[in-house]
Write a structure and sequence with these properties.
heterodimer, A: 402 residues, alpha+beta, Jelly Rolls, 4-stranded antiparallel β-sheet, 14 helices, 14 strands, 26% helix, 16% strand, B: 201 residues, mainly alpha, 2 domains, 3-stranded antiparallel β-sheet, 10 helices
Chain lengths: 402, 201
């Protein structure tokens, strides 16, 4: 029987990582919106490859390209929806009314600075987030905000036919509805920053840069095998964490290296969308050097030399999409998914359990999870046989040489 | 050397069940609670109602009103969901990327899920135990024996499996067939015995 697995016969478990870290050198895929086909989008989503969607290239597509909250500055938003209730990222807890001028006029430094952050320990500011989905005081205001929303083309581009193969006129899709019902607005002045963290969403997330340029750094959730490898993956926690799985081969000293070793660093400019997947650790920065230049160009275009803090107030919308679930990505990183807040708090990996057992309902999933018992392995084979007999309706066979 | 060559000549051909896209689709369609768990997790009504209308309908439903699951939009979304689930399930299992799921791929997924979800559950138990020890030191030492006993057997099996205790199933286990390969078939398949021998080492 071992012929089936001869290459793995002497395999004793996963080797420990000892890679040399040379900085965030990975290349982020960038695709123009009008060249992103449905199949490319699905492929990237299923495997969990983060990517940036650039503005369309063709003139035709560019002419119909529209941003949500177009032509609205932070000040406009504050005047239009003053009773909205935002969360203050200074302490991730305090509240701020949208109508309060302070948030878009006055720069306010964060409580701490971090040398490991992309700003390299420079003074940075705390921003504000307005969770439109559940921080809007009344349904009428919510409808007004939804009116400002634009669904990105990539989320509209799904099969528009129903089971009887008739075309349905409505443009709504599961992803378009999800974007409409999940978006939140992020506001930050120049030097604004978000420290490294992993979100608690089980779904892929898109950040749409509506105003200004944001610099991102990104890292896959680190390998995690035991309780000792758990760390605070929420704001700033990873900066203080030490990597005790990987051996630092790039240094001969006994000095332990930090866990935060981002793979990607890139800018997302106005109009671009950045797509990333559950448990990806990320940090951001509104780099003044990159944004001042843009503001200067804007002012020159408008022949308006006056400066106000509101000119430097950047806006991004963040939202989720449902389909496809990044199933191959969940599978590939299942151990670290389970041993992270996304696993032990949010239970996100449980969503793929029904895929494993082709289960008809939750009860069946629970029944098939046989471990731990001494006879577990024979029970797994029984589960496979049962599934094959139930699902493989035509009993077809594959012949292979081993 | 001759002995080793003899060993490689015992190459088998395996016949194995395959699940294709159509079969995955049938299974997904049959499923209500399993594959469609996410439908319940959407934060918005799948039948296309707006929020205000949804609140009104909810009231109606309480008083015996009918849901709108058969609306064209709800049907369209179900169609989208099924289409996507088929791709997701295939992507989850299909490690060789041939567009089909074979018996061994399915077995690996089942074994992995069993081991990892049980391991994760055990980590949580140990975590709880530590919390308990920290918060109730006197009670912990009083009940130490019983508390540890509770986890011992689970951990023993987990350690056994983690350190190489998992063996692949036999063809009989999975209900697949094995046939001996003929010399002619070997040649037709272009198998280089010496290359195979190298891999064995």
């Amino acid at each position: 029987m071992k012929e089936w697995f001869s290459p793995l016969r002497r395999f004793q478990g996963e080797p420990r990582t000892d890679e040399k870290y040379t900085g965030p050198t990975a290349y982020i895929p960038r695709l123009p919106a009008d060249e992103l086909s449905k199949s490319i989008f699905e492929g990237l989503s299923l495997t969990g490859q983060p990517f940036v969607i650039e503005k369309p290239i063709s003139e035709k597509a560019l002419s119909s390209f529209a941003l949500p909250f177009a032509n609205l500055t932070c000040e406009h938003i504050a005047k239009k929806w003053p009773s909205g209730d935002m969360r203050d990222e200074y302490d991730h807890n305090s509240r701020m009314k949208v109508g309060n001028k302070k948030w878009h006029k006055d720069f306010r430094p964060t409580q701490r600075r971090h040398k490991l952050h992309v700003s390299e320990g420079a003074e940075v500011g705390a921003g504000f987030v307005w969770h439109v989905k559940d921080e809007v005081p009344d349904p009428v205001m919510k409808e007004e905000l939804k009116q400002q929303w634009t669904v990105p083309d990539v989320l509209k581009n799904l099969d528009g036919i129903n089971e009887k193969k008739t075309i349905i006129s409505q443009q709504k899709t599961i992803n378009s509805e999800e974007s409409l019902n999940s978006f939140e607005l992020w506001f930050a002045l120049e030097k604004g920053a978000v420290f490294a963290h992993a979100d608690s969403y089980c779904e892929p997330t898109i950040s749409w840069q509506l105003k200004g340029t944001k610099t991102w750094r990104l890292m896959m959730y680190p390998k995690s095998e035991t309780l000792e490898h758990r760390f605070n993956s929420f704001d700033e926690g990873i900066y203080g964490a030490i990597d005790d799985i990987a051996e630092a081969s790039d240094t001969n000293t006994s000095e332990k290296r930090p866990l935060w070793r981002p793979e990607y660093e890139f800018d997302v400019s106005e109009g671009e969308l950045f797509v990333f997947f559950p448990n990806y650790m990320h940090e951001t920065w509104i780099n003044p050097a990159k944004n001042s230049e843009q503001n200067g160009q804007q002012k020159n275009r408008n022949n308006n030399p006056s400066t106000s803090a509101d000119d430097t107030c950047t806006i991004a919308a963040t939202f989720q999409y449902q389909l496809p679930v990044p199933s191959a990505y969940y599978r590939a990183f299942l151990p670290r998914m389970l041993n992270s807040a996304l696993g032990f708090e949010e239970k996100c990996p449980n969503r793929v359990l029904s895929y494993v057992f082709f289960a008809l309902n939750q009860k069946e999933v629970n029944k098939e999870l046989q471990f731990p018992t001494v006879k577990a392995q024979s029970k797994w084979s029984t589960a496979v046989r049962k599934t094959l007999h139930r699902v493989d309706k035509d009993n077809n066979y594959l012949t292979r040489f081993f | 050397m001759n002995q080793k060559m003899e060993k490689t000549s015992r190459i088998m051909k395996k016949s194995c069940y395959l699940i294709d896209k159509n079969e995955i689709e049938k299974a997904v369609r049959e499923s209500k609670d399993g594959f469609f768990r996410d439908e319940k997790q959407f934060g918005w009504p799948i039948d296309g109602e707006d929020e205000i209308q949804a609140a009104k309908n909810k009231q109606k439903k309480k008083s015996g009103g009918k849901s709108n699951k058969k609306s064209p939009l709800a049907k369209k979304m179900r169609f989208e969901l099924i289409n996507s689930r088929v791709k997701e399930v295939l992507a989850y299992h299909d490690s060789d990327g041939n567009g089909k799921i074979d018996a061994m791929e399915l077995w690996r997924s089942v074994a992995q899920a069993n081991v990892l979800f049980a391991w994760s559950k055990n980590l949580e138990r140990i975590n709880d135990l530590r919390e308990f020890k920290r918060n109730n030191p006197s009670q912990f030492s009083k009940n130490k024996k019983n508390l540890l006993k509770k986890y011992e057997s689970d951990m023993e099996i987990y350690e056994q499996i983690k350190h190489g205790g998992i063996f692949p199933p036999t063809p009989d286990d999975l209900g697949v067939k094995l046939e001996e390969i003929t010399e002619e078939e070997e040649e037709l398949a272009g198998l280089d015995k010496n290359e195979l021998y190298k891999n064995e080492l």
